[in-house]
Amino acid sequence: MKKKRKVCVITGTRAEYGLLYWIMKDAQTSSRLELQIIVTGAHLSTEFGLTYKQIERDGFSINKKVEMLLSSDSEIGVTKSMGLGIIGFADAFYELKPDIIMVLGDRFEIFSSVSAAMIARIPVAHLHGGEITEGVFDEAFRHSITKMSHLHFTATEEYRRRVIQLGEQSDRVFNVGATGVDSIKRLKLLSKKELEQSINFQLGKKNLLVTFHPVTLENATSKQQFTNLLTALDKLEDTNIVFTKSNADTDGRIINKLIDKYVLDNPINTVAFTSLGQLLYLSAMQFMDGVIGNSSSGLLEAPSFKIATVNVGDRQSGRIQAESVINCDPNSESIALSIKKIYTTSFQKKLLNTVNPYEQKNSSEKILQIIKNFNITNIIKKKFHDIQT
Which of 235, 244, 269, 336 would suit a FRET pair with 86, their CA atoms being 20 to 30 Å apart? Predict the structure, then answer.
């Protein structure tokens, strides 16, 4: 009997896990793959909801937990966390001996894992490479991860070309679409009544979902920008607001404290969650008029529901966008005008014809087929692909 290929999936945040869920689920039942799971980062933090427990509730067995989050989200704290992560991943890889690891995106936790894998000579499959997020240091991490990876699964053809532009061999770069859209198609989303019961919050005539993360390449702007967003929300009438809290980036705790205070001051029409989880988050999104903030979900998943996205500031600058996305400056006036635009007749008509540029059929299945069949013998040695001019 042919030996199963050991695929080790690494996840450090709730959002990233949601995008990897169906790949993990399909790998778990594959006769040709052995799924290994390493959790790290915010998954292991009480402050961020101990979300590794959701992974276990979903029926997965976690092979290793790599502790790396410190109590500080300062520049020094995050840098030290990265160092702890490399040490922890070195031990985990030595014990698990995966044939290939699978990572997604651009965060510092993933950068640490891939750095350790490179030294251990373990091939890396990377999802969502080639993208641009000009406002955060994740931008540099993503391209660095691309250069340390060996199989690449991009969300659009433009991103595929960009990975090749970085010197990667074209036969190792695959445009498969965004796996997050798979969850919209494959999950049985909750009804409005089921959602309201699950989150203990009644939706109103108008509803907005707010997710805002720090712009890490800017110095100390998080508090002011999010305060501006809250000022814009204050101007709304008859609108219920669901907040999901920030991630573990530098200054993320500042945003979360502001959310707590705002909900405390506005208990009738607001509610906040450290982590909704994939099912509740997507179930909530389908009943929203718009997603407000700077989360990638506003660009990747929201267009599939044909709802608006108000994309605040520069965090997502450079990403391909659907016509349902409204870009605005991070000041209260610009945000307020953009939210007002959502409800105009002309924009509501535009939403009906929204096409999600990240949507393809069966993205997760495509990725797993390649993982199963690609010859990874000697894949570690890479030739730089020069683009002929």
Answer: 244
In 137-221, which residue ranges form alpha helices assigned H by DSSP? 138-147, 157-165, 179-186, 192-199
What is the band of 5 on the pLDDT scale with cuts at 50, 70, 90? very high
User: Residue type at 268?
Assistant: I
- What one-character DSSP code corresponds to residue 41? G
**Sheet strands side by side (includes 151-154):** 64-66, 33-40, 5-11, 100-104, 124-127, 151-154, 173-175
pTM equals: 0.88
Walk me through the domains of the chain, giving residue ranges and CATH numbers. Answer: 5-177+360-373 (3.40.50.2000), 189-352 (3.40.50.2000)
Q: CA–CA separation, 145 vs 166, rounded Å?
A: 11
* Burial tier of 169 (Cβ tally within 10 Å: 0-12, 13-18, 19+): middle
Give the CA-trace dihedral at 286, 291, 295, 296, to 10 degrees: 50
